[in-house]
Amino acid sequence: MKHMNSEVKEERTSNKKRIDLFLVPIVLIAAFLNLFKIWTDEYANAYYTAAVKSMLQSFHNFFYASFDPGGYVTIDKPPVVFWIQTISAKIFGFHGWSVILPQALAGIGSVLLLYVLVKRTFGVWAGRFAALAMALTPIVPAVSRTNNIDSMLVFTLLVATWMLFRAVRTAKFGWVLAAFAMIGVAFNMKMLQAYMVLPAFYVFYVVATKITWKKKIAFLTTATALMLAVSVSWAVVVDSTSADKRPYMGSSQTNSVLELAFGYNGINRLTGNTSVTGSSHKQPAQTEQQTASSETKQNSNSSADSSQSSNQRKSSSSQKMQAPGGGNQNGMFNTGNPGPFRLFQKGLSDQISWLLPFVIFSIVGLFAGVKFKGPYTTKQKESLFWLAWLLPVAVFFSIAGFFHQYYLIMLAPPIAAFAGAGAVALWSMYKQHNGWKSWLLPGGILTTAALQVYIMSPYVSSIGVASIAGVGALGVILALVLAVRKQRKNSLTNYLGAAAMVVLLAMPAYWAVTPIIYGGNSMLPSAGPDSSSGMGGPPSTATNSKQSGFNGMQPPGSSSGNSSSNNQMQPPSGSSNGGQMPGGSSNNGQMQPPSGSSNSGQMQMPGGSSNNSQMPNSFSSKSSSSKRKSGGMNAEVNQKLLNYLTKNNTGEKYLFATTDSTSAAPYIIKTGKPVMAMGGFSGSDPILTVSKLKAMIKKGKVKYFYLSGMGKGGQSDVITWIKENSKEIPSSKWQSTSSSAQQGPSGNGTLYEITLK
To answer: Which of 28, 152, 115, 142 is nearest to 510 (CA)?
Structure first.
């Protein structure tokens, strides 16, 4: 107990010391990577931005996290992060940057927290290096520059970690409760993903606390009960509220938060099972997987130089486009193929794995000589915590059926912590000539440099052979020189060690800044020379790869006649359906349009615009001064349609109804008026029935319907009824002919009007 009290006094004394001047540039780097040019992102992730616009309008929408101002359906995540974003928008005004700002600050906060957590036990240099590694982990700023949840989630879990460490140091049960309650708060950010850290919390508390087993069990049981109570608090309130008094719970099939938590946002992420149970035809849901055509086809820049676009189209017209899951894209959303080495595959490795070999060598060094029965030093206990965080999360991402690249930010804290703690530990072993352990430092540098060359090799056309060869050569040379000079103690050796660390962080630093250089993707954030495509894979071989976000292809509605039949979407490799995409019919490997579409086999974009299987341009770095509407291919409003709907609205609650959120979001953001996404996020939610829709029309709540071939899912009967009982509005009255306007509902979609008495 005296020892713990002395630690507390030491902590208070250290807090009175001056600011670490070496930390200042690290924080400035993090601030630059997370904040610079976020003001160019006008819509951010339009799905979530529309929800903030709706939540600003009433407490009812705010509490339930309603996607639309009419309170028809919620977004597909719990509300805590969006409460914070709404408060930010209330304070600073509703802008893309104001909904991104909380996540950007959380990214900076995570860097500071990791510094504090590592510094106390492993030393100030370990804290500095850990903070720098966290700041330069590419996926960290890539996610933090968007209004997606994960940056705030990681920050919250690091706050919980700080509370847990303090609970162990002070032996105060209140801090244990606070730590687990904070995980409950994190659950209300992204549900079961927050529980990934629980093994680390349980293992560390059991090993690190010096109390009886009876107290350990009692304390952990109580803390877990509190965590569960906080976790389900919002869900219980929502699920116990009558369905007619709240929005439908988006992306669930039974209108339940708990089903959403343990199904769509839970077990289904591991199994990859996203089948629709609410439709009459059992087929894969057009949930996050099938909305690749919505999520990855963004960042089109309508003001981009037309000659550049033409060159990109010509250079890409002879290439076949691989769909997510195809050989070139290497797994769904380019997340690789499940297996023990998945994190070293392209698409994932360049987001998170740059320092993994060094981390492995660090783990060996930190646990060298540890006996299973103890006793353990404080360093070993906290190393065990970070290991218990790293391994289960790494295993999940190695076997999971469905996730996005930006989820990998969950691995950033333990990797950065081990990089910082390991750098100091391995350097100490190296300097002390500590037997075989002294070889861990040069070995870690050598293998890490080799991996980084492997990670960069698919990007030769973007970053050049010289950069790749330079990193590899410097890494090998410095590792060999350190091995040769192992018996010498002088300042040159110190400089060589510092130089090696700089080399290992050089390319992660470049990758981390790519969302600023080339533009980011707010819906599917990733880092790399093709960061604006949101696919995180190697760049295309288009002439100007820096500006060809996804093979340099054009957005829907482009008037160019340079499209090629060779731009075919390819089915997932190994597909057993004869080359079909999910729910499609065989077409010899070509991407099929949604059922009911009449576009003769052309790839149809959300909102119904045909693009002859073309994909969008990325945001060009040369036009970065303009506002970037990166909320999706429909992140533009068809002003002619909006004018028509506004003029002909006779008091209806909803401006119009459409199949899914992709078409609805820009109009909600633009006008703040209710737009009904009949099938929720992807169009697959079984929200409406024909009888419910009839009642809404008779009550004068809605009369206009924009329908495309996308997003039928569980609402095919409703769509059929609409088509059979409506009057089609001639496209000349509402459809704009300009290419930029065709970002909104246009293309092959149809506008209908229904009035019932």
So the answer is: 142
